[in-house]
Write a structure and sequence with these properties.
Length: about 425
């Protein structure tokens, strides 16, 4: 920090900010791009920038005290972390000034400029008419959001309205509304004992998200290889579970070929999103890095099946926490969602509950949605509510919503039916029939 007697360097454009209503702070040293035209058109606007970020602490920041300052970061390239570290540094500096300026953020992803683009790139879009440039700059400022707590609320609302922020749907309407699970920056756990169809549950979701809705999905399968899961996806799509059985295929060769041909393209597409575990043991550190790579590359939904299959290299409670903290940072910064299949702790599968999850307490604490899938055995008659109407249904699975921080469904149970390796929703479960 410079002392008061140390010579301070003026910000680029900083000597002329007095009396300006709107001051734009550019990440690149491009303040002149706007300033050369505003004096003759609109004297309320001005821009400033830093010539050399290495001299950050010896610039004259007091010139911005009490002003309205708009932070304009350069647009990041695909795959780059969008944490805007330099501009956050500026924001923190401005917040320390007295009187404190009002600080607003401009989201460069809202602007039709190329990756790596800055305010100069934006001006060039309208360079034939300076008045149009100024009008467009004002429009950008109007869509900025404050760095105050209310500013983040505004940004979230506007992003939801524009569709940039979206909670991805699930293929089961009642469960989707009750959980709103796949919101940006959130973690969903799918738990259940072996044989409850958790992996089928997840592949059905991934196929729906990727093929039906067109989202970018990554699925890391830690148990069985890609071919195994593609065969099950083929069974789900065709409604013919026999396609996973070598004997059935041998006895029905023509039928098997027809089914394959009908979904060959889909299998190729799904095969591209499935990652197989390498020959060596997979650790939580490895998975955390994989999650980060997928999130930075633009994957909207990232899935691991099951996270409990990793190799333990030390204190599992510590490793669990490190993984969750690293993964949470990746998905929050990129707006992706993480879906993890897990298991009950040893001896804890009989009763569905957050305390029965395998591993450390961090899994329950830092996830927004926890779903517990239970096998009911043979089909049972259950009373369910569908659109407010009570009726009877047959179900062989139950999905317990243990946690639903994004919606209202925590504590509710949903009857489901596994048929042809596909899970169907039957309605919110009211109770089992007497004697069951």
């Amino acid at each position: 920090m410079a002392n008061k007697e140390q010579f301070l360097i003026p910000l680029s454009g900083g000597m002329f900010v007095s009396g300006k209503k709107h001051i734009i702070f550019c990440e690149s040293d491009k303040a002149y791009s706007l300033n050369c035209m505003v004096e003759s058109i609109d004297r309320t606007l001005w821009s400033v920038s830093i010539s050399d970020w290495a001299d950050f602490d010896i610039y004259d920041w007091d010139a911005l005290s009490g002003a309205n300052v708009y932070l304009w970061p350069d647009k990041k390239k695909d795959g780059e972390a969008k944490n805007y570290a330099q501009m956050k540094r500026v924001s923190n500096k401005l917040m320390s000034l007295k009187p404190r300026p009002k600080v607003y953020w401009i989201n460069p992803d809202d602007l039709e400029i190329p990756a790596g683009g800055d305010i100069e790139s934006f001006i060039q879009l309208y360079s034939k008419d300076d008045k149009v440039v100024i009008e467009q700059i004002h429009a950008v400022l109007a869509n900025s959001y404050s760095s105050e707590p209310s500013g983040k609320v505004k940004k979230r609302i506007e992003d939801a309205i524009s569709g940039k922020r979206e909670t991805i749907r699930m293929p089961w309407d009642d469960i989707d509304r009750a959980t709103m699970a796949i919101a940006p920056g959130t973690v969903t756990l799918i738990c259940g004992e072996g044989g409850t169809a958790k992996s089928l549950f997840l592949t059905q979701l991934c196929e729906y998200w990727h093929s039906k809705l067109g989202h970018k999905v990554a699925l890391f399968e830690l148990e069985e290889d890609r071919e195994y899961h593609l065969m099950r996806i083929l069974a789900q799509k065709t409604g013919e579970p026999g396609i996973t059985n070598d004997r059935w295929i041998r006895e029905n060769p023509d039928r098997a070929r027809v089914l394959y041909k009908a979904y060959e393209a889909l299998l190729d597409e799904m095969g591209k999103i499935i990652y197989e575990a390498p020959v060596e043991s997979v650790t939580l550190t490895y998975l955390a890095k994989w999650v980060d790579e997928q999130a930075r590359s633009g994957k909207r939904i990232i899935c691991i099946d099951p996270v409990t299959a990793v190799a333990s290299g030390g204190d599992i409670w510590v490793e669990d926490l490190k993984f969750m903290m690293a993964a949470k940072q990746s998905i929050v910064e990129t707006g992706s969602s993480l879906v993890l299949v897990t298991h009950p702790k040893k001896g804890g599968g009989a009763v569905a509950g957050m305390d029965s999850l395998s591993g450390g307490a961090c899994w329950a604490r830092f996830s927004q949605t926890i779903l517990w899938l239970k096998n009911l055995g043979d089909k049972k008659e259950v009373d369910v509510s569908v659109n407010g109407c009570q009726m009877t249904a047959e179900a062989n699975r139950m999905l317990a919503v243990l946690k639903a921080r994004n919606s209202f469904g925590g504590g509710s149970n949903y009857a489901m039916n596994l048929h042809g390796l596909v899970l169907e929703e039957c309605g919110e479960m009211l109770k089992l029939k007497k004697g069951e």
